[in-house]
Amino acid sequence: MDCLKNLKELVSELEKFKFETEEDGWELFIKLVSERLACGASSFFTIDENKKIISFARATGPHSGEITGVSFGYTGVVGWCASNRKDLFVKNTKGHPLFSGKVDHITKFETKSIMCFCCYYGETLMGAVEFINPKNKPEFEDADFDTVKILLSLMSRIAYANKLEVTVKHLNDKAQSTINNLSGGFIGVDLEGRIIFFNPKAVEILEIKEDYMGKSYSELEKLAPDMKEAIKDVLVDNKIAKRMEFFYSLGGGRHKKIGYSTMNIKAVDGSVTGAGLIFQDITNL
User: Which of 111, 196, 230, 247 is deepest in the core (most CB within 10 A)?
Assistant: First the structure.
């Protein structure tokens, strides 16, 4: 029961992880596991399968500063794991054929027991984690290996989800920057009709002060009925307009001639995620 309780606590800690980069996340992971299993040292390696290069990305232990950033070819325990895409548990390194001892020779550290695990994003091998020398017993036990294997499966999913979130945010930021710098006005809505883009040029052309972001596109009815109908045509009937025009009333007898086109907003995979309207003031053209 104590083992199960400990595992549940570790899972709970993992699920609370917040990090900016992949390496930051894996550093949190090896620190958490090292603390709970009382490890003498641990490392997270990045792996380049094309060049067959392994690099110490993050490390804990007395020589972490010396080894972080060091790269080497496929050799030793982690090299075997990378080459075979399998985890490896070496209870006692003495005389073991896969233990090279090269890092020990450089750092004067003595590795006695070691667990090494492959880290995946889907089918892609992106790294490995290694845990060395339990402080409270002569060597790691099978239960330790099984515990880390379970935690690693969860951590891989968390890290991959974080990677996707960062990628999506980057794409959204890039899209927002592009839209904000368009020479024409742009209004975009999602499939529920909520306004998700309303760039500065649109505000300038329409000469408005009201903030429409987050509102239903139906709110555009009082601003420009033709604009609202054009967006509705895309959302409801998938009717795309090219180089159309309407007159926009500013009140006080003032009008602008607006040239516009509409489009579907699509995700990277091609699926439709909303509707967009791009327009310009063509009064003086």
Answer: 230
